Amino acid sequence: MIRELELDWGFVSKYLVKRIGDYIRAAGKDGAIVGLSGGIDSSLVLRLLREATDNVFVLLMPSESTPKEDIEDSKEMLNVVGNPPHEEINIDDVVSTIVSKTGIHDRLIIGNIKARTRMTLLYAYAQKLNYLVVGTGDKSEILLGYFTKYGDGGVDILPIGDLYKSQVRRLSLYLNLPKRIIEKPSSPALWKGQTAEEELGISYEKADEILYYCFEKFMEPEAVSKLTGVDENTVKRIVKLVKMNEHKRRTPEIFKISERTVGSDWRYPRIWG
């Protein structure tokens, strides 16, 4: 990881824990729910949640494409954080029903149906418990659009959404998450054998460098290519992904007419007096 992305991980950890707790209280909720996949992002978020609130509920939602190792890692992570209340729901029957009713056979669309089925289950439990749904997306995935709109992107807060994947790995190391979870290839497991880096065509480490230099330092692709050692066409492809997926990062646009418009003006949770 490049030097510029190194942070004081103790400070980052405490800050995120405080912000999560503050947000839950500001929202008037009693706790938080998270979907645990056995991957590094959801494992890290669960670790932070356990410090932020006493009330955490965890859902495991495997499908036929979920690797056995991911289920094992999820259960290990539950043990690491003291076995908070949790349930495991296999989503295959729900997904099969939607697929049969729509006649869809496209692998990507079915994968997105899986992600949106999980979102629906998380919100059902959240409403039942008066909890918030806590998302697990990181900055790399959010910028690249590597998530399902209204699927894993349909959440109330994204605590690690300002950390690149390589920073997520650093913070996970600092918090002593299981080594196997930190080191295994990232995958949404929406179909068998899927890995994020293979699908994106670049390692997260290099993608993070490109994203940082292009969108935080506003450098041109040619300069970023020379600095990172990544060919210029790949840099341009990453930039294109960020631009073409902007709609996935935005809430539905409300066209401003009044002085105070939801979205344009009401942007932060308010502490009502």
Shape: globular
Give Rg in angstroms.
Answer: 19 Å
CATH superfamily: HUPs
Q: What is the name of the CATH class? A: Alpha Beta
Largest sheet: 4 strands, parallel
Helices and strands: which structural class? mainly alpha
Count of the domains: 1
Count, helices: 13
The H/E string reads: HEHEHEHHEHHHHHHHH
DSSP strand tally: 4
CATH architecture: 3-Layer(aba) Sandwich
* CATH-defined fold name: Rossmann fold
Q: Order of strands across the widest beta sheet?
A: 3-2-1-4
Helix content: 40-55%
| Oligomeric state of the chains present here | single chain
DSSP strand (E) fraction? Answer: 5-15%
Rounded mean pLDDT is 95
Q: Span between N and C termini?
A: 44 Å
Spans of at least 5 consecutive residues whose pLDDT stays below 50 are none
Pathway: Cofactor biosynthesis; NAD(+) biosynthesis; NAD(+) from deamido-NAD(+) (ammonia route): step 1/1
Binding site for Mg(2+): 41, 141
Binding site for ATP: 35-42, 136, 165, 187
Domain NAD/GMP synthase: 14-252
Layout of secondary structure:
Blueprint lengths: L8 H18 L4 E5 L4 H13 L3 E5 L7 H13 L5 E3 L3 H11 L4 H23 L1 E3 L5 H6 L20 H10 L4 H5 L12 H5 L3 H12 L5 H8 L3 H13 L1 H4 L24
